[in-house]
């Protein structure tokens, strides 16, 4: 059964932009394990990748949700090597997020993705709808003539 990861801007008080990404239960467990940080007997796949990056002298500088096509999101890991060169590695957003939460790495989304896939501000939509309805009613009342009330 799919779940949603909802990304929001840093410092957001809950009223701003929210980017929902649908993921599966295994991916939820991987992200939760990274947030939970409870001791495990053996490393999970994302722990292994994190250790591998360190062992090879790299650093995960950020992850980026790069694209969305339909309901499918695309992401990259942005690695910095010891010599300063940057390498972007294509991955699923759920894997990028699972790795980022383990390492305390920033998660970014391209503006195009935010514009395409963000959840609307439902309170604003409701307010706008209410204002349109009030304007339509006002225009209706303003357009009434005394003749409209004769039997």
Give an account of the 3D structure.
The protein contains 5 helices and 6 strands; from the N terminus they run ββααβββαβαα. It is elongated. It has one domain (3-118): Roll (Bifunctional nuclease domain), CATH 3.10.690. A 4-stranded mixed sheet has the order 5-4-3-6. It has a two-stranded antiparallel sheet with strand order 1-2. Helices cover 41% and strands 27% of the residues. It is of the alpha+beta class and 151 residues long. The protein starts with a strand and ends in a 9-residue tail after the last helix. The chain has helices at 25-36, 45-55, 93-103, 111-117, 122-142; strands at 3-8, 18-23, 59-69, 72-80, 86-91, 107-109. The mean pLDDT is 85.
Provide a concise account of the structure shown:
This protein has helices at 25-36, 45-55, 93-103, 111-117, 122-142; strands at 3-8, 18-23, 59-69, 72-80, 86-91, 107-109. With 151 residues, it is of the alpha+beta class.
Instruction: Output the structural class.
Output: alpha+beta
Q: pLDDT under 50 segments (min length 5)?
A: none
CATH superfamily grouping: Bifunctional nuclease domain
Rg of Cα set? 24 Å
Oligomer class: single chain
Biggest sheet strand line-up: 5-4-3-6
CATH architectural arrangement? Roll
How many β-strand runs? 6
Shape: elongated
Compute the number of helices. Answer: 5
Strand content: 25-35%
Taking the alpha carbons of the first and last residues, their distance comes to 61 Å
Write down the overall mean pLDDT.
Answer: 85
Q: How many strands, what sense, and barrel or not for the largest sheet?
A: 4 strands, mixed
CATH class: Alpha Beta
Helix content: 40-55%
